[in-house]
Amino acid sequence: MVKGAGSGRDAALRAIAKSSQADTVGIALRRALLGEIEGTCITRAKFGSVPHEYSTIAGIEESVQEILLNLKEIVLRSNLSMELEAHPFASKVLDT
After folding, report:
1. Which residue, 42, 32, 47, 34, is CA-closest to 83?
2. Which of 9, 12, 13, 89 has the fewest CB atoms within 10 Å, i.e. the most exposed one?
3. How far apart are CA 70 and CA 90, in angstroms?
4. Would you say the C-alpha torsion 8, 13, 19, 24 has a positive or negative sign?
5. What is the pLDDT of residues 5-36, one digit of tens each?
6. Which InterPro entries does the annotation name (predicted)?
7. Structure confidence by residue, pLDDT tens digits, 33-45
8. Do 76 and 49 fall into the same domain?
9. Same domain as 87, residue 43
10. Could you list the residue range(s) of the whole structural domain that residue 63 is in?
């Protein structure tokens, strides 16, 4: 522990920063705080027979990775306190 001016908490934080453990403590703190936040979000996406996120879908301009990044931008509002499974469906008729 570093002794000096300030509260014990400040001294503890300075000691952590000096011992190169700040990243480890910060990540653990972030996970603990985010784990307590309740909210509604998209947790999974399934694309038929697409093998991985770097694939492309014939007839679709965006790659699967771009679509997944766009899904992260969707803001959902809910007052539910339980898990629900939704099956949104999108299709495109391809000209042959």
Report:
1. 42
2. 89
3. 14
4. positive
5. 555 666 666 666 666 677 788 888 888 888 88
6. RNApol_insert_sf
7. 888 877 778 888 8
8. yes
9. yes
10. 39-91
